[in-house]
User: What shape does this take?
Amino acid sequence: MNQHPHDKLKHRSAYERALTMLGRREYSRRELAMRLTRSGYSETDVEAALERLIEQGYQDDQRFGEMLVRTRIAQGYGPLRIRAELKTHQLLATEIQVLLDAAAADWQDLACKMLRRRYGPSSTADRQQRLRRAQFLLRRGFDAATVRSVTRVEVDVSIADDE
Assistant: This one.
């Protein structure tokens, strides 16, 4: 009798399952715990697996955070958006600040690049167009000071929600 491929998954330990997941990409401790629990592993098994993975250096929230920061910067996201995403993975505010500082990103330059990519090289824009550009940058997680300096629009953080 042939076994369904998913039947094999049920017989793997939480540790083995998590190790396979980590072989593909980095995961935060919280994300691994949620996925393993959703897959039907007990809280005890999940905790034991995570502790073992951390002890062995296979799971590391610091390394996960570094990867996420690099990836989001490359995708053109600002520090507020990145900080919010890291918080959802239960990283501490101090750890998040260290990660963002270590990235040494030039947020203003990144914001300018995002505007050029989205709107082209044109710098001549009327007030409405500049406001639209400011809203775009705010949604991508750039702070008001950066948006103001790049778009020359006085921004209130609430304008990102006005669409």
